[in-house]
Amino acid sequence: MNPCLTPWAGASISRVRDNFRDMPEVMADSEISARAQRHPEKRNRPDNPSRRKPPWIRVKAPNSPIYFETRNLMRSHNLHTVCEEAACPNIGECWSRRHATMMIMGDTCTRACAFCNVKTGRPKPLDPMEPENVALAVRTLGLRHVVITSVDRDDLPDGGAAHFAQVIGRVRALAPGTTIEVLTPDFLGKEGALEIVVAARPDVFNHNLETVPGLYPRVRPGARYFSSLQLLANAKVLHGDLFTKSGIMLGLGEERQAVHQVMDDLRAANVDFLTIGQYLQPTPKHHPVVDFVTPEQFFAYEQAARGKGFVLVAATPLTRSSYHADDDFAELRRRRKAMG
């Protein structure tokens, strides 16, 4: 058996942590799954970017007045959003509902993931006014739920954890009725970073695995699969009532069995909410789309994940980590209350 796919379903949190410590940090070196190798005609190669997207993931260009109001608000407060920086296909719908995912700590990432459209380089110093500006934007938009994410800041001693906490604190002060979801990096495993963020008491702690472990060397080379799982498990240990969440993309060349194993690993880490969406290649320089997964296949994955015990699952081609996050959080609370 592949050591990256050790079954942990049903294990206790302490057992999971023991397994995490025993697991190797070096993943398999395959860059694409066997299925992709068997069917090279399905690959959306960088040298052949003309492959058309299927109709179920085509979206209309944004043109509503509220969309432009939201964009102007972000500009006036000198804020970045993952909606723009990551070229999210749902930006028109979300911004037209005055929903935006704040991306803090600048627009430049210290890593270079093969799927991500955020630019890589040497980031600028942190903006001391950013926590205030984020909170003001949240209050102006009247958000009932906000998602706060960031670039990777491996250059900072705490990976940016204290800045996350400051943003959470200012949102609590200026928009006390708004619930807060953080989508954090792994902080490069820096000691005390997770504790700083969890102590600020977000309502949801989200950290995306992004893909199956065998594709990490190619897709997410700066991260380690089991380190990310450990981060999610430890968040739950630090604050048992905290909702935890993670997401993966399909279409990168993953095998179905590996996707199911990721689900089992996340449940062993006591993760509540799983999101699954279609990977879309931002530019010809990024990792190719190997498959466009059909809505029927997404539904099958959703049913499988529900059967494994997630409190909530969102699995559609256009699902993104913060897509409909406000409605999803309300549903998470409702279901937890119903479960007693």
CATH superfamily: Aldolase class I
Q: What is the number of helices? A: 13
Low-confidence stretches: 1-50
Give the class from helix and strand content and strand pairing.
alpha/beta
* Helix coverage percent: 25-40%
CATH fold title: TIM Barrel
Number of strands: 10
Radius of gyration: 19 Å
Largest sheet: 8 strands, mixed
Distance between the termini: 38 Å
The CATH C-level class name:
Alpha Beta
Average pLDDT confidence is: 82
Write the H/E string, N to C.
HHHEHHEEEHEHEHEHHEHEHEH
CATH architecture: Alpha-Beta Barrel
Strand percentage lies at 5-15%
**How are the strands of the biggest sheet laid out side by side?**
1-2-5-6-7-8-9-10
Into how many domains do the coordinates divide? 1
> Quick one: overall form?
globular
Q: Could you describe the 3D structure shown?
A:
This protein has helices at 13-22, 34-38, 65-76, 82-85, 91-96, 130-141, 161-174, 193-199, 216-219, 225-238, 256-268, 295-307, 325-339; strands at 80-81, 102-104, 108-109, 119-120, 145-150, 179-183, 204-206, 243-250, 273-278, 312-315. With 340 residues, the chain is of the alpha/beta class. It has one domain (3-43, 58-339): Alpha-Beta Barrel (TIM Barrel). Helix 1 (13-22) runs antiparallel to helix 10 (225-238), helix 6 (130-141) runs parallel beside helix 7 and helix 7 runs parallel beside helix 8.
